[in-house]
Amino acid sequence: MKTLNDFANQKVLVLGLAKSGYAAAKLMMSLGADVTVNDQRDLSSNTHAADLAAIGVKVVDGGHPLDLIDSSVKLMIKNPGIPYKNPLIKKALELDVPVVTEVEIAGRLSEAPFIGVTGSNGKTTTTMLIGEMMKGSAYQPIVAGNIGTALTSVVQKATERNVIVAELSSFQLLGTRQFHPHVAVVLNIFDHHLDYHGTVENYAEAKAHITANQTASDALVYNADSERVVHFIAESSKAEKVPFSLKGRVENGAYVSEGTIYFKDEPIMKCDEMGLPGDHNLSNALAAVAAAGVYGVPVKYIAQVLRTFKGARHRLEYVDVVQGRTVYNDSKATNIIATSKALHAFPGKEIVLLAGGLDRGNTFDALIPDLKKAPIKAVLLFGQTQKKLLDACKKAGIPVIKEVENVEAAVPEAFALSQPGDVILLSPACASWDQYESFEQRGDIFITEVNKFR
Question: 349 among the known binding-site residues?
Answer without folding.
Answer: no
